[in-house]
Amino acid sequence: MALTDIYRKAFEDDCIELITSAYLIALSEKKYQLIWLENDFSELLGRYVNNNPLSVAKGITCETEKKLLSETVIMAKGFADKLPRIDFVYSKIWKKERVHCYMEAKRLKESDSQLKRAYIDEGMDRFISGKYPMGCMLGYLLEGKTNATINGINSLLTKDKRNTETLQPKQTKLFKSYYESIHSTTGILKHLVFDFANTAN
Questions:
Q1: Confidence class of residue 201 from pLDDT cuts 50, 70 and 90?
Q2: pLDDT, tens digit, for every residue of 71-95?
Q3: Which of 33, 50, 105, 181 is surrounded by the fewest CB atoms within 10 Å?
Q4: Do 32 and 196 contact (CB within 8 A), yes or no?
């Protein structure tokens, strides 16, 4: 593994640590509501990330609802309003180069197939297709159990004949509810599920 790849992995690990810490702070402060929309949760978590002393010590900045401008975009009038947006972009300067980490979040409920379908179609597939630079998926679980919800996502992937792309639990020091899916075009996609459903009063 090249030094740059090692650094990028360490940077991604720092970003995962920051968003996980933000989730734990959100649980302790309980300022959220389960009826919130996706962006409501993301804005709250983004604030906690940037307020974390670790983000300052590491020189990491987190932006939410960030537009993605690629080299292939045709810059005609109104192009900026049509750019794709991703929920979290983390950035840091390293050796005079700006490095990024990307995360897309989706709400999830065990009993809601539409939300699970959106997790695949509007989340995972945007990384897999290259619409988003490779990064991590975040699931905001608002109802039900994590394992059953992941099984529901995997059932949809199997129904789509994508058996090899299902989410598999992995042991990691970074976070308990951590999964990975493997894709032929992009490799490993990481998934973190933040359970807001079973901790709120």
A1: very low
A2: 566 667 866 777 678 999 999 988 7
A3: 33
A4: yes
Q: What is the pTM of this model?
A: 0.92
Query: How many structural domains does the chain have?
Result: 1
What's the length of the chain? 201
Q: What is the CA radius of gyration of the chain?
A: 17
Interhelix angle for 38-51 vs 3-29, to 10°? 110
CB-CB contact of 154 with 95 (8 Å): no
Q: Which domain holds residue 140?
A: 3-195
Structure tokens, 100? 């990024």
Sign of CA dihedral 98, 50, 12, 32: negative
136 neighbors 190 (Cβ within 8 angstroms): yes
Indicate whether 16 belongs to any domain.
yes
Give a yes or no: residue 200 inside a domain: no
CB atoms within 10 A of CB 63: 16
- Output the pLDDT for position 72: 66
The 187-195 sheet, strands edge to edge: 61-67, 85-94, 97-109, 136-143, 187-195, 178-183, 168-169
Residue pLDDT, tens place only, 9-19: 889 999 999 99
